[in-house]
Specification:
This protein is an alpha+beta fold and 132 residues long. The protein is built from 3 helices and 3 strands, in the order αβββαα. A 3-stranded antiparallel sheet has the order 1-2-3. Strand 1 (37-42) and strand 2 form a beta hairpin.
């Protein structure tokens, strides 16, 4: 519980510096998030998928041997490969953000626009709070 009687100006300086460092780390991570790619495979590697950090499909590759499968099996394998790639991208996003936050994910890492908005709001708040 916060006790105003124990408040020290040094505490405010320390919290402000920690916040500034967190915003700086997250700002650097934002560019890295845009480069993340997730990879997934199915049908014993005959079908592969690549998605971007937001889970959008970038590429689906079918080994010529996959064409021996019936159409339903191909469709299921493509779906499995895409889902595996999306899970891989989500894991990479989470890992990158967790490292940047020192293990604390207080926001949805899948919502890059939300993260960027949060960073901008935090930076604006910090700028407004600094003495002019």
């Amino acid at each position: 519980m916060f006790d105003p009687g124990d408040f020290q100006l040094d505490d405010l300086d320390r919290v402000a510096e920690q916040s500034r460092q967190a915003v700086q780390r997250l700002s650097g991570v934002l560019g890295e998030l845009k480069t993340i790619r997730g990879v997934g495979e199915a049908a014993d590697g005959l079908i592969a998928a690549v998605v971007d950090g937001g889970g959008q499909i970038q590429e689906v590759t079918l080994d010529p041997r996959a064409m021996r499968l019936d159409s339903r099996s191909i469709a299921q394998a493509v779906t499995e490969a895409v889902r595996a790639a999306q899970q891989d991208a989500r894991r990479r996003n989470d890992e990158l953000l967790r490292d940047a936050m020192g293990g604390d994910l207080a926001f949805d890492p899948q919502n890059l626009d939300g993260v960027q908005s949060w960073l901008q709001d935090a930076a604006r708040s910090m700028k407004d709070s600094w003495p002019h």
